[in-house]
Amino acid sequence: MARIIDGTKKNLVGAQVRALRTQRGMSQQTLSDRLETMAIYVCRGSVSRIEDQQRTVTDIELYGLSQVLGVPIAALFGPEETPQA
Question: How far apart (Å, rounded) are the C-alpha atoms in residues 82 and 63?
Answer without folding.
Answer: 16
